[in-house]
């Protein structure tokens, strides 16, 4: 696994190197670490054609010059970096960091167990990217769904509509509750009596709706905003 560190503090680099080395020995997984001291170095790297793909970027938010949030906008247009975990105390800026590449955040000082959780999550994503389920729609047509593509569920009367990222959907002859129970492998949150979202597909949220990566807006039930914030932050930090 290729892991990159982008932080303007050399002490953070040293600490992360030591922790990643410990992870490598504990889980018997080879890790190659790349170091960047600022966002521009990351941009230069991804623009170079022959450089290796980065599986996980550990990215500081607050840096001189281009910050981590702005860098993320460039990374979305490039497939050289698969996943991003923010290393920062600026939790209040996490809403700006929502993207399909954002896997979560770790507060400073860095907690070893939380770092290990995120590295393991990336490792599992590569093995789980092919996880799929076979399911019939209301016309008895059999579909193979890749779990990583499911964005949200919509309750219909006696049926459930499954929405896939970026733009696909299917209706199954199964109740909303039964369907949610069938997909327990996914980080699902029931945000409304008729909707359940996959937390990894959240782009931003307000007190009245949730915007997903496809830019679909899902209604948020009254009084659920604070609960969703807590659940989402816990998911982002702890997986």
From TrEMBL:
The keyword Phosphoprotein applies. It holds the Pfam family LytTR. InterPro entries: Bact_response_regulator (IPR050595), CheY-like_superfamily (IPR011006), LytTR_DNA-bd_dom (IPR007492), Sig_transdc_resp-reg_receiver (IPR001789). One of its GO terms (molecular function) is DNA binding. The keyword Disulfide bond does not apply. The modification 4-aspartylphosphate is found at residue 60. Keywords: Phosphoprotein. Residues 2-123 form the Response regulatory domain. One of its GO terms (biological process) is phosphorelay signal transduction system. This is Response regulatory domain-containing protein.
């Amino acid at each position: 696994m290729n892991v990159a560190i982008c932080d303007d503090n050399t002490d953070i680099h040293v600490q992360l190197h030591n922790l990643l080395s410990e992870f490598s020995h504990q889980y018997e997984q080879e890790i190659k670490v790349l170091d960047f001291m600022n966002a521009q170095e990351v941009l230069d790297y991804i623009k170079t054609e022959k450089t290796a793909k980065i599986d996980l970027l550990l990215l500081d938010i607050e840096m001189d010059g281009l910050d981590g949030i702005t860098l993320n906008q460039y990374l979305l247009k490039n497939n050289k970096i698969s996943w991003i975990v923010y290393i920062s105390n600026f939790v209040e800026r996490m809403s700006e960091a929502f993207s399909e590449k954002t896997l979560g955040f770790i507060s400073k000082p860095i907690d070893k167990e939380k770092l290990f959780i995120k590295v393991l999550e990336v490792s599992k994503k590569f093995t789980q990217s092919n996880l799929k389920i076979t399911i019939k729609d209301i016309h008895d047509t059999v579909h193979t769904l890749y779990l990583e593509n499911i964005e949200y569920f919509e309750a219909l009367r006696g049926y459930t509509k499954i929405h896939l990222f970026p733009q696909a959907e299917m209706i199954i002859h199964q109740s909303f509750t039964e369907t949610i129970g069938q997909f327990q492998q996914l980080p699902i949150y029931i945000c409304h009596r008729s909707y359940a979202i996959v937390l990894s597909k959240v782009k931003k949220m307000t007190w009245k709706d949730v915007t997903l990566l496809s830019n679909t807006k899902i209604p948020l039930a009254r009084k659920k905003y604070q609960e969703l914030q807590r659940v989402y932050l816990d998911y982002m930090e702890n997986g």
